[in-house]
Amino acid sequence: MAFLLEMEDVQFKPKAYQKAAQTIAVLATDIEKIYQENKLEQIPGVGEGIAKKIEEFIKTGKIKEYEKLKKQCPVDLENLTAIEGLGPKMIKILFKKLGIKNLNDLEKKAQTGKIRNLDGFGEKTEQNILKGIEFVRKSKGRFLLGFILPVIKEIENKLNKLKEVEQISLAGSVRRKKETIGDADILIASTEPKKIMDYFVKMPGVIKIWGKGKTKSSIRLSEGFDVDLRVVEKKSFGSALQYFTGSREHNILLRRIAIEKKYKLNEYGLFQGKKCIASKTEKDIYKKLELDYIEPELREANGEIEAAKNKKLPKLIGYNEIQGDLHCHTDWSDGKESILTIAKAAQKIGRQYLAITDHTGSLKIAGGLDAKKLLRQKKEIEKINCKLKGIKILSGAEVNIKSNGTLDINDQTLSKLDFVIAGVHSHFKMSKDEMTERILRAMRNKNVKVIAHPTGRIIQKREGYLLDLEKIFQEAVKTKTALEINSWPQRLDLNDENARKAISAGVKLSISTDAHSIPHFDFLKFGIAQARRGWAERKDVINCLSLEKMMKKF
Ligand code: DGT
Ligand code: CA
Ligand code: CA
User: Fold this and answer.
1) What phi and psi, each to the nearest 5 degrees, are found at residue 451?
2) 270-281, pLDDT tens digit by residue?
């Protein structure tokens, strides 16, 4: 509705629908239940008008106004709006002037140079559209780990309650914690596979059964992704887990090592002739191959087998080693909760410290703070620190790096804050040299302790800006600026590969959540997973340190 109304140039309503949609999407309770209790209008952002629409949808499965609007502009909104920089108003112009309804139409018109002549488009926009199409196509069919993991964990829990299940584990790319997932894989050990498969294919949420057998079944969930389930005997659980965790490339290298030793390795075990010499646990298998145990996050055929052979594997940072969070927002800018509320939540999950880093001045949509407000916030934080025990709240800011590399808050103010991070939030399309210079300059500001989401990429949405990362790493070491691994499932920036390069250049990382509300603290595990995939150890991460040590070093 928001998109369609915006196309019709309706004022205010699109924003209202968008806000309501965002709230509804993350409701903990089923909206039908809320409707039955007559409490729709208690949902934040849902007024009388939108409540009526929700009621209409629950009763009839349709919304008349939506159908009507859709007829006026029958385009594939979902895919067209997925293209970075293409908003509803532009999509309407493309439809009215060129009859573009979907990605294929769009591609054809862009390739033949038809778009550049439209008012307000130009050749550059046309090029960007073509890039955007390619990007959307490439990411099709894969899903964010952050989207899959909660759903698949719930299924794992349900299956685990069946009495026939002796052992269970997630496998495949979900277990390796890749940022995007093709399908989810689950492995079970049991002597009664049939009962498990019967249950699996009939679970609520299953919309398609691709196959059902004794050892393997495959389904699609209403969320749109597929789940493969394999059931094996307990005695080969370890070898099956190793096999189905992958990656394929890692397995190929591992089998090669087995062959060198005159063994045979498959999902049933490691064999010497006909004799099985390891199969119960993964550890047994790696050990018999004279390798140190390799954590799933490292199994990408990126040198981990060589390192395991030479006892040179990193001792990966653990999922419980982060002491403090160095990036979060409150209702002073675009966050949801007050400082006190979010601070208490951080304390409850065991954080020793939390930096409040609200947006600043020039980021108007995010309700950015100016210098005066920042200092007022600092005072407020001092008061809160007196009230709270066991956690220290740091006053900070997420300042904007302007296109010339200066910051949008003066140095004098910044020097009064405890912890300043800086990020690029505008003018993404600069040349590589300019963008690199821009960030280098920000790092040279001695108040800046961390560069937030350093490459600016959004998974499946936009590529990072052009950047000479080598130079960024060198300057980060020189100026003692940490680089962030932002834990948002769509960001995970730095990514695994860049984190690994950064670490080997001697750069320190900050793994933080960028929480805009309390549930976002849960994202931390995705940031840590990405760091582990980047071979990060505890010592590489500044917020594994106690507050005193961290502040002394940075
Ligand atoms: P995905 O689903 O695209 O995110 O990636 P994976 O790694 O989960 O791949 P998937 O689901 O096709 O298979 C899960 C694992 O099972 C894979 O990592 C390795 C193993 N595997 C599956 N099929 C084969 C195969 O044909 N050959 C080998 N060597 N391994 C396989
Ligand atoms: Ca998979
Ligand atoms: Ca699979």
Assistant:
1) -95, 120
2) 999 999 999 999
